[in-house]
Amino acid sequence: MQFRLLIGGAAVFGLVLATNPARAAAPGFYEAEVEVANQSAAARRSAARVGLERVLIRLSGTAPLPAEPVLRQALSQPERYYDRYLVVADDRLKLFFTPSALMELIDRAKLPLWPLRRPPAIAWLALEANGARQIVRGGHPLAAALVAEAQRRGFEARLPLMDLRDQLRVQPAVVWGRSSLVLAEASRRYGAEAVLIGRLRQDADERWSGEFAYWQGSDEFTLQVNSLDFPQAGAAGAGFLANAIASRDAIAWRPTEVTSWVVGGIESPLHYGALLRHLAGLEYLKGVAVVGLHQDRLDIQVSSRAEMGRLLTLLQADGRLAGPAPGARANRLTWRGADLERPLAGQRLPLDALAQWSSGQASRSDDHPPTQPVGNP
Questions:
Q1: Shared-domain flag, residues 16 and 36
Q2: Residue 144: CB partners within 8 Å, gap ≥ 6?
Q3: Which end of the chain has fewer CB atoms < 10 Å from its terminal CB, N or C?
Q4: How far is the CA of 134 from the CAs of 160, 174, 182, 195, in angstroms?
Q5: Given 3-state DSSP classes, what are the helix, strand and coil percentages for the chain, each rounded to the nearest 5?
Q6: Are 356 and 339 in contact (CB under 8 A)?
Q7: Under a CB-based contact definition with an 8 Å cutoff, are residues 87 and 136 in contact?
Q8: At a CB cut-off of 8 Å and minimum separation 6, what does 71 contact?
Q9: What is the tally of structural domains in the chain?
Q10: Are residues 90 and 208 in the same domain?
């Protein structure tokens, strides 16, 4: 079989593309831009401490971080967790943290891990002032603060366009009354899986009080806010939503478990390589080992803190891997996500490198896209 003859080349192809664990994530998950008082080493160290805390909150979904000795020690030595920084402006520093080091720290601290595939949320916000109500659109100070805080927490928050289509469906009274049926239907056009509803009333001091609400299945979660300005209220709403989503989606710490999977649909060396590249980019997998190849089927073992049922859900989330057919065993998957358009011709590695990578011994060295650093820790 020609595929079998080419399996060595396929393994190399997969290895070349698969040794960058963070590259599959949206940009920014492992970065932090922080204000600095000046460009001294002391100011940079203080900024790195703030940046490390922000990134750990973003990856774990846990805010505030628990007062664990492991985390206190890490925050006292933040230079161990980033490999370069850029001076963005006189008063701002951008730090690039090392994904593998952060994942090890999260595991040692027994923090949850919030998977990096995070569908966007939609925020329906209504304001009442002087007896009149309005729905907030993008560009409003409240919206800007909410979007910025959501980005810092690692997910996208969208505001409705409030064009004619939205206006025909959603009136301010609908948001104020938290009509779940109307808002759920209106939210579908925005591709959002989470819906935040906020209603704030201006008080005598021209500040804002009210509540944010988030539905999770049949459960409703609310956050009361009092006497805030728009930046404070927006940040509070986004933080509340981030905590609610993370409480649902984050993978709680548990000892790593090795599970066996069978992946069909491996019809060429390029399929093989694309699958390995995809698996190596999944932050919730700690290791992947190829243990067998049979016709168009690949036998693999993966190490993860997620139990098997949750892992099956995660592996299917982006559609590249399809779940088991009716009546098939739960560990049967089908590969559907190979990108065959840009093969890396001419690249070679020793074949024993595949065995090294598969056993989890190969270091994932190129954690970031090429960037010219201004400095190193």
A1: no
A2: 234
A3: N
A4: 13, 11, 17, 18
A5: 35, 25, 35
A6: no
A7: no
A8: 56, 65, 105, 109
A9: 3
A10: no
Residues of the chain predicted below pLDDT 70:
1-27, 217, 338-377
Q: Which residues pair with 113 in a beta bridge?
A: 251
Would 371 be classed as within a structural domain?
A: no
> Residue 339: helix, strand or coil by DSSP?
coil
Domain holding 14, by residue range, is 2-23+253-358
The token duo for 280 is 């190596």
Tens of pLDDT, residue by residue over 304-330, are: 999 999 999 999 998 999 999 899 999
Decide if 111 is inside a domain.
Answer: no
pLDDT confidence of residue 77: 97
Task: Classify residue 109: in a domain, yes or no.
Answer: no
Cα–Cα dist 78/306, whole Å: 28
Q: Is 295 part of any domain?
A: yes
Do 128 and 244 sit in the same domain of this protein? yes
Cα gap 166→152, rounded to integer Å: 28
DSSP characters over 287-299: EEEEEEEETTEEE
Domain match, 36 and 11 both: no
Domain boundary among 224, 249, 274: 249
